[in-house]
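hi!! sorry for the late reply, been swamped w classes. u asked for the two structures so here they r. pasted raw, havent cleaned anything up. first the sequence of the first protein and right below it the tokens
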Amino acid sequence: MQDAPYILYPLLASVAGYLVGSISFAVIVSRAMGLADPRSYGSGNPGATNVLRSGSKLAAVLTLLLDALKGFVPVLLVSLFGARYGLGEGTAALVGLGAFLGHLWPLFFRFKGGKGVATAAGVILALNPLLGAATLFTWLLIAYFSRYSSLGAIASAALAPIYQMMVWGMGPIVGVLVVMGLLLIWRHAANIKKLLNGTESRLGQKSAAAQPPAGSSKKHPNGPGPAAHGHSHKHPKKTSSHNPSANSNPKVSKK
């Protein structure tokens, strides 16, 4: 019974991390700013990259920061205040994993979540700031030169546990990084197929579904096609005022 708190506290902390991760800021920010639901266009992913396809950079930045914070804050709280409750590095890693899983399968949004890139970045930054910086740099470098956010995310997910093992050695963080990395790559399966086929959307590219309807026209409010012309009826031909037949046989009135 004396060991119960050492089992209960990590479990409760992990559940709390999952509930925080279940908050889908992509949907909340989009609704607050009057934008379309990010699950209805582009990749259908409620994440910052897909929100960017709506054309609103502010909404995308807010989504990115908030998604990262929901992974960063729970882990940071455990790291700062968990020692007095017997919560160490292993619990902090589990809390981060809980937040990540909450983003993937959010309780509050019918378990339909995003791919977890920003949330995973927040978790890694809180667990190991230097590792987080190296992982973010990897993503930025690949995404900048390739213009594919998904490619940068996949490469970063694969390299993060390798960075940790090579520089800081084995530990509970490595196990969590491996699980998150495998899930990230799995969630990007469709993106991998598109990358191989050359059909993956690039950074800054607006989704067709998020753009104005194709039938609209700035030149004419009625759009293209026959109905777009202002005068669709035919004008009658003008007849000449001089009618030769009327003057050729003039009628003589009889008195």
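now the second protein. again sequence first, tokens right under
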Amino acid sequence: MIINKDVMRDHNERSVLQAIVNHGPIARNEISKLLGLNKVTVSDIVGTFIDRKLVSSQGEKASSPGSGRRAELVAFNATYGYVINFSISGEVLEMLVTQLDGRALSYSESPLNQPTVSEIIAKMTDMIGQLPAFEVENGLQAISIAIFGVVYQNEIVTSPFVDFGDFDLVSYFQERYHVPVIMENEANLAAVFEQDFSKQELQSLVAVSIHEGIGAGILLNKQLYRGNYGRAGEIGQIMIQGPGNQRLAKLPSFDREWSEAALLKKAARLKGVERYSLDQLVQAAGQDDPEITSLLEDLCYHLAIVTSDLIVAYDPQMIFFNSPLVEQLPELLKNIQMKLSFMPLVPPLVMSKDVKYATLLGGASLAIHQVLDMPGTRLIFHH
């Protein structure tokens, strides 16, 4: 078999950079042993990375007396540039700026109230314009945008909370800032975060996101599973069966009945008030309010059903819950786990490592992979 030298060089460069990102600071001879590449090849590639300022020297490795010349350590230069990551829900626009190892440089948010697309674009560009001059080598490298809705090949298919119409967000920001722009579903990005910001590598996982709506991000064989048109994991669209044989079109969706927004509306009706906040719900639950306790029991029952469906459909190693409600009431997760005790081989149900920033950091991971031209490569970022 004839192997193209350029293809082999590209493969070796990605492997060496992956080793430096995941294991650095690391010596060239350690990279050589780790990858099974000869030392000359590794030194040549590392030298190229140093010239490009992707990698920097970290001085000599400490060694025992009499062990000979000390090896030079090299590390990934996380300040090569930065990426900007947005999340657009129906209530808030968030922006997180990270350097290329995932460490945060800046965070800001702006409330939204039934905004138009032009208002959202104006806020996004204004937030970028207010950023300080970060101490990095090459400035902005990429932008990611998280959407609460269905995204297919960088285009919005449906967005229940914001009407984007035919506006092309990706093209707009690419043309304005001249960098790659990645757009993805927010639950998918939450799943990416759980994998890439952890040293524990899972073959498959599901991240259940419960906010204004409910969705699931799915990783199978360490890759995002989006389905045929980006709708995989849209568990908020699951129909809830009522008594009798109603027409399917008349059945309520899981989003309509058990999203965080729907739950708070139900709590408001129970309490005879116009609005009921998450903080009020948590406080009432802590005080064993019988109406709220019963409502949360119903929530756990329905979440257990959906979770069982996810287990049967995807057989994940772990299921993460990304939910401000569950974060504040962790006993809900135990309740769901107990309800599933009849099932064999139920995977661990755990809280997200970072409910607030998971989606934004997942976007940062995809953006950084794009900058480094390493799609599908396992990179471990700092959290």
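hope this helps!! also noticed smth abt the second:
The mean pLDDT is 94.
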